[in-house]
Amino acid sequence: MSVRVALLGCGTVGTEVVRLLEDQAGDLAARVGAPIELAGVAVRRPGRHPGVRQELLTTDPAALVARDDVDVVVEVVGGIEPARSLLLQAIKSGKSVVTANKALLAEDGATLAEAADAAGVDLYYEASVAGAIPLLRPLRESLAGDRITRVAGIVNGTTNFILSAMATSGAGYAEALEEATRLGYAEADPTADVDGYDAASKAAILATIAFHTRVTAADVHCEGIRTVTAADIAAAEGLGCAIKLLAICERVPGAGRGTAAGGAGGVGELGAPESVSARVYPAMIPLSHPLASVGEAFNAVFVEADAAGQLMFYGQGAGGAPTASAVLGDLVAVARNRVGGGRGPRESAYASLPVRPIGDVLTRYHVSLEVADRTGVLSAVAGEFARRGVSIAAVRQTGGEADGEQSAREQQGARLVVVTHGAPDSALAATVEALAGLDVVRGVESVLRVEGLGRPVSTLGVAG
Ligand code: HSE
């Protein structure tokens, strides 16, 4: 008996999958208890794959999936269609599926999971989030007896490279993006990465597994890094913080469960049911947090669970060989299940918790304003925060000369930086909008969220 594999796609990841399957054939067979054999590889242009035996190549993925001698379909093409139809076709004909397709899983993972359950086959997708880092299986299996309260991390290497380059060299966003493109970290069209969509798909997958609740990409609030400036990075450093694009998945306790450990979204109002929040945005985090020192294109995910406490997962989140490592791990697991006659864990979405809109989530803001430097400005600014019930944690003014002439001071203006305590995001956003309309505010220079990620306020370098 052997386990026969159809590979859909043979780009950067697929090529490495083929190489590993061939290079390690003997070891893989010993680990599985049967050889894993490639039955075919579906590609668009057969002439472009010198590393694959020509007789394996086909341009007809549907026919490959339909073959009776295929046991497992591995999909590394990406995108919604035709990947979804091909995988559903595979599942319905009794084939197990291994996929790295985060966009498909985040948009319609439920359809695939239901089909896999109905057909009694496996659906594995470790490579869809954070490349080589073993993360989904630890969440799904190792922590299955625990109660996960937060999964927060850096799950997009391109943006982490750009933000790290900005912090290291003082470069602006455009310059750092150019460097990322030149070095091959950013694609020619970087939209999915820099606007946060890639991270949002991964957040949806993580939240679904961590909270036993179906969360789709549409449920994830998403902001990218295009608006982050060199001045923002410098301001963050001044506060003892780094700026990272974070994917944050949090359990928000209902009334009577107290607060999540330091969680921004952790306060349940009276009578509210337990819920979850999933969001992606650039945020300031304390330099003392392990995520702050994750540089270059690396990924890292911080997991908090009631009994396990804090866990950190770190490694390469992209690239051919690292992603192929995760694909092969899944393939071995699925092959073992086939040989042993069992199945891996099914989808677990029993909790069906509601997903909170971003406006209801407690966040903290760092707001930088250009203001006129005259009597009453601070009070006008503070009044807008107070009117919406937003508590200020720290205020810092720079630029105004303490002993200058009043007319000169008024002309020159000053910069006011306000850091808030936690408040509903909608109240913070409304406050910023109101500030922008004040006569005394010449401009809102930047607005960034501040995430303690379980660290107390005092570690952010501002008075609590
Ligand atoms: N484009 C992703 C990143 C890798 O930059 O991390 C694939 O998920």
UniProtKB/TrEMBL annotation:
<keyword id="KW-0915">Sodium</keyword>
<comment type="pathway">
    <text>Amino-acid biosynthesis; L-methionine biosynthesis via de novo pathway; L-homoserine from L-aspartate: step 3/3.</text>
</comment>
<dbReference type="Pfam" id="PF03447">
    <property type="entry name" value="NAD_binding_3"/>
</dbReference>
<dbReference type="InterPro" id="IPR045865">
    <property type="entry name" value="ACT-like_dom_sf"/>
</dbReference>
<keyword id="KW-0560">Oxidoreductase</keyword>
<comment type="pathway">
    <text>Amino-acid biosynthesis; L-threonine biosynthesis; L-threonine from L-aspartate: step 3/5.</text>
</comment>
<dbReference type="Pfam" id="PF00742">
    <property type="entry name" value="Homoserine_dh"/>
</dbReference>
<dbReference type="InterPro" id="IPR036291">
    <property type="entry name" value="NAD(P)-bd_dom_sf"/>
</dbReference>
<comment type="function">
    <text>Catalyzes the conversion of L-aspartate-beta-semialdehyde (L-Asa) to L-homoserine (L-Hse), the third step in the biosynthesis of threonine and methionine from aspartate.</text>
</comment>
<dbReference type="InterPro" id="IPR016204">
    <property type="entry name" value="HDH"/>
</dbReference>
<dbReference type="InterPro" id="IPR002912">
    <property type="entry name" value="ACT_dom"/>
</dbReference>
<dbReference type="InterPro" id="IPR001342">
    <property type="entry name" value="HDH_cat"/>
</dbReference>
<keyword id="KW-0521">NADP</keyword>
<dbReference type="Pfam" id="PF01842">
    <property type="entry name" value="ACT"/>
</dbReference>
<protein>
    <recommendedName>
        <fullName>Homoserine dehydrogenase</fullName>
        <ecNumber>1.1.1.3</ecNumber>
    </recommendedName>
</protein>
<dbReference type="InterPro" id="IPR005106">
    <property type="entry name" value="Asp/hSer_DH_NAD-bd"/>
</dbReference>
<feature type="domain" description="ACT">
    <location>
        <begin position="366"/>
        <end position="449"/>
    </location>
</feature>
<keyword id="KW-0791">Threonine biosynthesis</keyword>
<dbReference type="InterPro" id="IPR019811">
    <property type="entry name" value="HDH_CS"/>
</dbReference>
<comment type="similarity">
    <text>Belongs to the homoserine dehydrogenase family.</text>
</comment>
<keyword id="KW-0028">Amino-acid biosynthesis</keyword>
<keyword id="KW-0486">Methionine biosynthesis</keyword>
